[in-house]
Specification:
The chain is α+β, with helices and mostly antiparallel strands and 205 residues long. The chain has a domain of 140 residues. The chain is 17% helix and 27% strand. The strands form 2 sheets. Strands 1, 2, 3, 6, 7, 8 and 9 form a 7-stranded antiparallel β-sheet that branches. A two-stranded antiparallel ribbon has the order 4-5. A hairpin with a 4-residue loop joins strand 7 and strand 8. The longest helix is centred in the N-terminal third of the chain and has 13 residues.
């Protein structure tokens, strides 16, 4: 299958945001998205036959930037993301699956056996959903929609959808490697999250 061409309006938006042809990080605090976030969230929650189960959490810059640096700009975030993701899933067992993830547990120093393992590997069970991820660009009013999945685990961790992985193979994480249940039948009919083509659009606003 040949590579798909970028739609003209999307290509024009990219050129407008980065006229030099070099895509770099930008200040997402100034994004238009913050003005429409609440309304967009409400609109997604009103879609019949779908539930909004997850969305990108607000980023806390305080963890890696000391405000005493004066006029120095904050350093680049290792987890910089140029889009905000919403995940929606239909109701019904056919859109759910059981899964597990790998978790490393540090031993109790008081109970540490000098000849024993330093870490214990555990596999907390979890529950996952098959649905759609809506990635809204923070640079320009466009969105991409694709099949994806989301999982929650008993240890409190999650496996969020990642539309940015559409170019990679199917098995990219614990939710995809170990899932089992009715959701797999749906995946067989609908295509996997990374083999289904992403829809670049529609334009927002």
């Amino acid at each position: 299958m040949g590579a798909k061409r970028i739609p003209e309006d999307v290509a024009a938006a990219i050129e407008e945001c980065w006229p030099d042809g070099v895509i770099e990080e930008f200040d997402t605090d100034e994004s238009f998205f913050h003005d429409i976030h609440a309304k967009l969230e409400r609109d997604l929650q009103k879609i019949p036959g779908a539930s909004l189960l997850w969305q990108t959490e607000a980023e806390d810059d305080s963890a890696y930037w000391d405000d005493d640096d004066g006029d120095e700009p904050p350093p680049s975030s290792p987890d910089f993301q140029s889009y905000h993701v919403f995940f929606l899933a239909p109701p019904g067992n056919e859109f759910e699956f059981e899964t597990e993830t790998e978790s490393l547990e540090e031993p109790d120093p008081l109970e540490l056996d000098p000849d024993g393992e330093l870490e214990t590997v555990k596999y907390p069970p979890g529950r996952g959903w098959c649905g759609c991820a809506v990635a809204v660009s923070l640079a320009s009013p466009f969105a991409a929609v694709d099949f994806d999945d989301y999982a929650q685990f008993e240890d409190g961790s999650t496996f969020p959808p990642d539309p940015g992985n559409v170019g990679y193979p199917d098995e990219t994480g614990p939710a995809r490697e170990n899932r089992q249940g009715p959701g797999e039948a749906w995946r067989g009919r609908s295509g996997s999250s990374h083999s289904a083509p992403a829809c670049a659009g529609p334009k927002i606003g």
